[in-house]
């Protein structure tokens, strides 16, 4: 991420905004690109005055909303065969296991999977194409997509912008010991959040393994064109 930030800092602000929108937009279409790394790096550059935070956030939100909408259209037209081809092309990111987890999230949470998926690396890539392939109603998809994109883009940008500004102040007015303690606290909280996310992911995957074992090791397939989203979870 430091290399990305250093590379971006050598570019004009307008080009940085275009890169943020472009990388996040292509990632949202279903291509695994480091969209979050680009956003984080640009937000930290905003804290140093290289770029403006509102333009970084706006570019990220634009890329997320438009990219997800394009991904939705592609998924609706290409369906599950398209997702299978993406899985073969990017097996580490979009393989059968990742696709099954994403489908499980849609089945459990309905259109809210699009909103919360913006904050999860896997669903951030798959939400648009998968929602289109599963024929999620576009109006509901667009509402969740726009809300998730705006909250994610502006929340992430201004959070990191504020942290960067505070860190710059600390470097001037607080001892190195205080800075080290703050860094250790941040690393500890990040470790705890990752551990909790892993536990939640493990808990979500347990019912699938049990169901597969009960069915002789064959997980249930989603019929092409069918909408596995329960009616009660569409809202």
**Amino-to-carboxy terminus distance:** 37 Å
Overall geometry comes to globular
Task: Give the integer mean of the pLDDT values.
Answer: 76
Pattern of helices and strands: HHHHHHHHHH
- Total of domains: 2
Number of strands: 0
How can the largest sheet be summarized?
none
Short description:
With 235 residues, the protein is an all-alpha fold. The chain is 79% helix and 0% strand.
Tell me what you see in this structure:
- The protein is globular and about 50 Å long.
- The relative contact order is 0.13.
- The chain has 235 residues and is mainly alpha-helical.
- The protein contains 10 helices and no strands.
- It folds into 2 domains: 164 residues, no CATH class; 44 residues.
Ordered list of secondary-structure elements with their pairings:
Layout lengths: L1 H8 L3 H16 L6 H13 L5 H37 L1 H4 L1 H14 L2 H6 L3 H13 L4 H36 L2 H39 L21
Helix pairs in contact: 1-3, 2-3, 2-4, 3-4, 3-9, 4-8, 4-9, 6-8
Name its key features.
235 residues, disordered C terminus, mainly alpha, single chain
């Amino acid at each position: 991420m430091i290399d990305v930030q250093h590379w971006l800092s050598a570019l004009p602000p307008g080009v940085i905004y275009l890169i943020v929108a472009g990388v996040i937009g292509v990632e949202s279409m279903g291509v695994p690109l480091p969209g979050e790394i680009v956003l984080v790096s640009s937000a930290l550059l905003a804290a140093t005055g290289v770029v403006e935070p509102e333009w970084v956030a706006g570019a990220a939100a634009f890329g997320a909303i438009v990219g997800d909408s394009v991904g939705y259209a592609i998924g609706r037209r290409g369906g599950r065969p398209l997702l299978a081809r993406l899985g073969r092309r990017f097996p580490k990111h979009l393989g059968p296991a990742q696709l099954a987890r994403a489908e499980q999230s849609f089945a459990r949470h309905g259109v809210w999977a699009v909103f919360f998926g913006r904050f999860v690396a896997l669903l951030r890539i798959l939400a648009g194409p998968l929602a289109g392939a599963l024929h999620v109603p576009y109006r509901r998809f667009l509402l969740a997509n726009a809300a998730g994109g705006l909250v994610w883009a502006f929340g992430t940008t201004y959070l990191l912008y504020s942290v960067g500004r505070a860190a710059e102040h600390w470097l001037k007015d607080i001892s190195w010991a205080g800075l080290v303690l703050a860094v250790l606290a941040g690393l500890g909280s990040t470790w705890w959040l990752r551990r909790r996310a892993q536990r939640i992911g493990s808990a979500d995957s347990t019912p699938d393994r049990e169901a597969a074992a009960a069915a002789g090791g064959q997980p249930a397939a989603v019929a092409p064109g069918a909408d596995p989203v329960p009616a009660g979870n569409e809202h």
